[in-house]
Specification:
24% strand
Length: 260
Amino acid sequence: MSAQEARRQYRRPLLWLVLILGSARAMAAAPDFSGVWEVTTRVQELKTVDGKTPDLKAPARRLYDERRAKWQAGDLSYDPTAKCVAPGMPRILTLPYPFQIIQRPTRITYLFQWNYWNRHVDLSGKKLEAPYPLSLGESSGHWQNDTLVIETDGLRADNTLLDAAGMPHSESLRLTERLRLRQGGALLEDRIRIDDPETFSAPWETKLEFRKLPAATEIPLDICLDRVDAGKPAVDWSSPLVRLSKTARANPRAAAGGAR
């Protein structure tokens, strides 16, 4: 072995050590999003951060108006999720069901109650590409100080909608989420930029908030088809959100298990 090859062999494990230590330091400094979360308000029509309907291009606007009229009349024939098809992103975040976040140095995993769906966010720094359009797309993230930035693309458009009222999107859809903790870790804010030039006149932003449920909260097994077979809706908007005790409402940080 030449001296140059020996140096390469020596540097390789050192490089891996540097990467591992760097990842560990970044994780140690990162906020902890782990826990069970639930959206704070019911979101059936997605709005911009200033409460307006986004500016859809003419064909998408006509389609949305048609679907929204059906939705208001109780006709969900336009919605594949009414037959237990995956809601897609970001719609799955708006459903009135809790989800769990499991945080690791190189991955964040969302475990959704609704029909046992899950989402993975890669934090390794690799550029990921979906092999084909997926219901929840392909997501990668990185930290900017105390904010987690998640970019998602590769989203399937033929059977997913942006909201319960039928807002359409194309496979050009790209989402950029900026997540940060608020109120001492009791709330998780998700500010979402929606960029889809085939559907909207310009990129726009919406915001979702989630409250952290008590540490002992367990997510029950949920099978959508069983619910539908029993004559219930695939997404039950009539069910109450998880109710916190008076103590939890008065002290959300304590209810969240003292999250930082």
